[in-house]
Amino acid sequence: MERSGRNAVATLAKLYRLALLVLSTPVVLGEYFARETGAAYGVGFTKKCELAGRMLLNNTRIPTGSSFVEHLIIATQILNLPPERDGVVVECGCYMGGSTANLSLAAGACDRKLVVFDSFEGMPEPTDVDRAHVLIGSKEVHTYDEGSWRGSLGTVRRNVTAYGDVSACEFRKGYFEETMADFDEPVALAFLDVGLRRSAETCLEHLWPLLDREGYLFTHDVKHMEIASLFFDAEWWREHLDCDAPGVVGAGSGVGLHPKTNGFGSLLGYTVKEPELRSFTRVEEDGAETYRVGASDDD
Ligand SMILES: C[S@@+](CC[C@H](N)C(=O)[O-])C[C@H]1O[C@@H](n2cnc3c(N)ncnc32)[C@H](O)[C@@H]1O
Predict the structure, then answer these.
(1) Which of 49, 151, 185, 241 has the greatest number of C-beta atoms within 10 Å?
(2) Radius of gyration, alpha carbons of the chain
(3) CATH code of the domain covering residue 200
């Protein structure tokens, strides 16, 4: 096929995917646009449209490893946090600040602080477990070199100042292993986009105990088997955090946000700390026995 023909096909495919994204918005972003989301902060439909528009534009302005739709899913849970609930929003792994700019807009709209952890020097050297990651869902193997995904603190600050809400941000520069040790603020929600299992382990070890008991923890590495499996690793959770493994929604394929060849997917997954979600109660309904998620009221 000639070059112009190939370009036309590529443009059509792009337009088709965009149309699918627009058509699927009521499902994918149903909770974001729900009346209750943001109501406690006076963030209504018009403000949410403005926020979504800025986030979309930011995705084209700042080189970013994640998508604005993924940011909107996280923003939904930030807007849903009850104002009286204590805690900051934490981002681990910000690269050039594309995700930071968007999350700062949501955090700023709710008067919450966004604490951003990164080396600002890129990835640390991968250890043996992180030499290569398997992404079964997309039949890929991912590798990282030391220093890749580098965004300097100056670049990130400039990007967030230009396109986000820098007044909501606090930057913690250094490897997680060093910077998290003395961090002890209550965490209302966390977003991990760290690429390496070792880095994810460090973040979980420090942040899980600080996370609110109903708090959401998002991960942008959920297609990596090495990282998704960590959330189901009963032994690791018992040894390091003395609790059951929480599991993760979206393991292997991500939550269904973007049209793909075989349905919808993304790189985003999440877990909720709520321990009740991991138990069930036997109840009687219309004379028949059935089960409900959560512990019984007597527990
Ligand atoms: C994939 S990039 C993040 C992409 C970004 N969230 C976005 O959407 O554009 C991964 C980031 O994690 C950081 N990182 C990974 N492991 C780290 C560690 N142990 N300590 C500090 N930063 C780390 C890297 O510096 C890099 O900025």
Answers:
(1) 151
(2) 20
(3) 3.40.50.150
101 burial via Cβ count (<10 Å: 0-12, 13-18, 19+): buried
CA of 92 to the centre of ligand 1 (A): 7
Residue 299 lies in a domain: no
Residue 190 lies in a domain: yes
Nearest ligand 1 atom to alpha carbon 176: 20
For residue 291, name the pLDDT band (cuts at 50, 70, 90): confident
Q: Residue 101: how many CA atoms within 13 Å on its side-chain side?
A: 31
Q: Which residues line ligand 1 (CB under 6 A)?
A: 64-66, 93-95, 98-99, 118-119, 122-124, 149, 151, 175-176, 193-196, 199
3-state secondary structure of 159: helix
- Total domains in the chain come to 1
DSSP one-letter code for 249: B
Q: What pLDDT does 78 receive? A: 98
Whether 264 is covered by a domain: the verdict is yes
pLDDT tier at 297, thresholds 50, 70, 90: low
Ligand 1 centroid, distance to 195 Cα (angstroms): 7
Domain of 16 in residue numbering reads as: 3-293
